[in-house]
Structure formats: C-alpha cells, structure tokens
Specification:
about 150 residues; alpha+beta; Heat Shock Protein 90; 3 helices; 6 strands; about 25% strand; protein serine/threonine kinase activity; serine/threonine-protein kinase; transferase; HATPase_dom
Length: about 150
C-alpha cells in the first residue's frame, strides 16, 4: 500500500511561529517538546496534543533521516483564526518533494506517514516552501492539521 499526501501551499509566511530544530537524533524530541508547550499555551486539548506530538515526531524523524545534507530543519505552527484549526509543519531544505517510502512489512521503519495520515484524519500534505530562519533557501514542508 502506498501513502500519498495532498500537495498544497502548506503555510504561507509570515503567519504563526517558527523554531529551529537541532541536527541529530534529538530533532524529534525537541520538536515534541516545543510543540507540546505551544499547543498547551493555545489551549489545545490534551488528547489532540498527544496525537500532534506523535505526528511531529514522525515528520521530524523523516526530515533528520531522509533530507540528506539539508540542515537545519524548522518547525512551523500557525492557527487559523476563523476555524481554530492549528497547522503544524516540519520544513527541510531538501527541495525534492520525494517522501520516504511506506510498507506494512518493513519492520520498524516506513509507517510514519501512515500514522500522520490516520491521526490527522487525512488532513496533511507536502509542498514547496522557503526557509523562514536564516537565508530564504528553498525546500519542502510536510504539514498536518489539528482540530
């Protein structure tokens, strides 16, 4: 089974907040901690925050493992004032829209995007984007919505 994502303009700057993500295996842990604090401050319910932490962990891990030589990564967050929907994205400087593969039989790897798809109710995607920290380098952002 192949996972596909919606392709869209993920989050047009300058809306929302941006944080740098460290290079290395601590990338996902840092993304989870920052997102938890921000979502709690926005009043997002605990169950939605737990799902969001898992989704951002998967996206940050993918950026660290698959966006070869394209560091640093960024965490983006914004809230749509009209709907209350919160959008979260992980940006990397690998401009290819290629996403990691997916397989039910690949052991411990390859299930992250399926987890994001399920927990977001299909409200996720990827798109070309530009870095918000430092030089405006091209890359891609993989995002999901939290309601």
């Amino acid at each position: 089974m192949k996972v596909s994502a919606q392709t869209t303009d993920p989050l047009a700057p300058p809306a929302g907040w941006t944080w740098p993500l460290p290079d290395g295996p601590e990338c996902a842990r840092h993304a989870r901690a920052v997102l938890e604090e921000a979502l709690a401050a926005l009043g997002v319910p605990a169950e939605a925050r737990a799902d969001a932490r898992l989704m951002v962990s998967e996206l940050a891990t993918n950026a660290h493992q698959h966006a070869a030589g394209s560091r640093p990564h960024e965490l983006w967050l914004c809230r749509d004032a009209a709907s209350g929907t919160v959008y979260c994205a992980v940006f990397d400087r690998d401009a290819s829209a290629r996403l990691p593969g997916y397989s039910w039989t690949s052991g411990d790897c390859g299930r992250g995007l399926a987890i994001v798809r399920e927990l977001s109710g299909g409200r996720w995607g990827t798109g070309a984007a530009v870095a918000r920290i430092g030089e405006p380098e091209p890359g891609k952002a993989v995002w999901f919505a939290i309601t």
